[in-house]
Design goal:
Layout: H1 2-8, H2 11-20, E1 38-39, H3 41-46, E2 58-59, E3 64-66, H4 71-77
Antiparallel strand pairs: 1-3, 2-3
């Protein structure tokens, strides 16, 4: 895991991979991130992943739901945000 993070977080390594394989992609490195295990109802619902609620795990008495995958919380990190073309691609690891 450390090797992957060190490699994909290093633009020089990515440039070498691109060159070695004649790829035509961005050499922008990946940003390591540890997504939260829980999400509040509003962003979860906005990501259109809350339903069916009976198949989700809610923390009783709190506005928190347990997450089984990262895309819900990663997507909600950029809620109400518009990316500029110069910011793309956004890469998380």
């Amino acid at each position: 895991m450390t090797w992957v993070m060190d490699s994909l977080g290093n633009e020089d390594v990515i440039k070498k991979i691109i060159q070695d394989h004649n790829l035509h992609i961005s050499s922008k490195p990946f940003t390591p991130i540890l997504p939260p295990y829980m999400i509040r109802t509003a962003p979860y619902d906005a990501m259109d992943r809350l339903e069916p609620r009976e198949e989700r795990y809610k923390i009783e008495g709190q506005d928190l739901w347990l997450q089984g995958s990262a895309e819900h919380v990663l997507g909600s990190m950029h809620a109400n945000e518009t990316f500029q073309e110069s910011d793309m691609p956004v890469r998380y690891l």
